[in-house]
Amino acid sequence: MRAIGLTEFGGPEVLRVIELPDPVPGRGEVRVRVHAASVNPTDTLFRSGATRARFNGRPGPYVPGMDAAGVVDAIGPDTDTPLRPGDAVIAIVRPYEPRGGAYAELVVVPAASVVPIPSDVDFPAASTLLMNALTARMGLDLLAVPAGGTVAVTGAAGAFGGYAVQLAKSDGLRVLADASPSDTDLVAALGADEVVPRGDDVAERFRALTPGGVDGVLDGAMLHELIVPAIRDGGGIAVIRGWDGPAGRGIRIRPVWVNEGATDHARLLRLRDQAEAGELTLRVAGVLPAGEAVQAHRRLAEGGLRGRLVLDFTAV
Known about the structure:
Elements: E1 2-5, E2 16-19, E3 29-39, H1 41-48, E4 67-75, E5 88-92, E6 106-110, E7 114-116, H2 123-126, H3 130-143, E8 150-154, H4 159-170, E9 174-179, H5 184-190, E10 194-197, H6 202-209, E11 214-219, E12 231-239, E13 252-255, H7 265-276, E14 284-289, H8 293-302, E15 308-312
Parallel strand pairs: 8-9, 8-11, 9-10, 11-12, 12-13, 14-15
Antiparallel strand pairs: 1-2, 3-4, 3-6, 3-15, 4-5, 5-7
Helix pairs in contact: 3-4, 3-7
């Protein structure tokens, strides 16, 4: 099979088309023929070598990607799943494992990591759902703010931030969010109750709306210590890049490690159902042939995307 991988870490130019053996599904596993794989910021960390310690010394080639949409190609022996070959599905892939990530024509994943594609959603759009929405879902669950409480979302115009806003609203929470002037209408349309200008002093703006402080923050912009003043004493902050404080005032720091939820089938099914019901908005910034992964990573680095770029593996 063809994949997009790397043998040395570096800039986008290290990505190239490589040939790998077709993976064989084992017990409890499903093989998916990938039609689309979304490009996420975590893929750029993978490619650059910033997270190379997670390979535990395993040699390359390395294949990035955590989000795939495609068709079930084969099912491993003794696998308990209602899925059948030919079913259209989405999957979350753990790229640091030996088989690599989603940038490949074929991926093998645990059956628990695969769910049916939402109805009336194409493969590129479907591939933008699971990793970012699951990260937001896990963050909200870790914060455990009861219905009627208030959360703030930073980086609300991004993929994680947008899902965080929508999931928080579906949980019955009041949602404050930040945005640039050009993104204010977008973030409001996603469901934020109040939208303030983004920036290093955004905590002050959130405090002006909630003088006692918010119950929790989903920190998609990775403001870390800059957003802590927005949180009430004893509140919480969900962080997505491993920041560990200190926060003070009894504020709980909740790191979100999406890999830990990759086989939480019930959560994945719920996200799929919410996307099908229109509660989650799938945003595609553009679709490129998989062989143009270098250009996709360069465009992501330039910033300003509102939605995810997607690699088309029917056109490697």
